[in-house]
């Protein structure tokens, strides 16, 4: 079953169970996929759908600190549930140790020695960790490791 078919089946289930957060989150994913397919006149495969889900996840993680600052506990809980739903459709996330290993390998592979080489390293790391790691964390790790050299 493709990821798009899985999303559709889960949408039906969420509607039957009256799980509005899951239903709304899945509908946002599906509308994002549909928008890209219409704009680019392509049919997205699982990898393309994962990319859409990753963008949705990043968006929610980026807005979480704002909600925490404003003290909106209701929105924080809703956002955390949405993040949980999004994560359930992504491949298993890499641990910090796994990310660090990928970054170390990329630095060794490119021979990076300064922060100016960050782009080369990020290119390799992004290809290996796409959809399986928060690129904000990866970028911070790469920067820290290159500054430490």
From TrEMBL:
Keywords: Transferase
Pfam family, one: YqeY
InterPro entries: Asn/Gln_tRNA_amidoTrase-B-like, GatB_Yqey_C_2, YqeY/Aim41, YqeY/Aim41_N
Bilayer-crossing regions: none
Gene Ontology molecular function, alphabetical: carbon-nitrogen ligase activity, with glutamine as amido-N-donor; transferase activity
Record flagged with keyword Transferase: yes
Superkingdom of origin organism: Bacteria
The protein, known as: Aspartyl-tRNA amidotransferase subunit B
Gene3D superfamilies (UniProt xref): 1.10.10.410, Uncharacterised protein YqeY/AIM41 PF09424, N-terminal domain (1.10.1510.10)
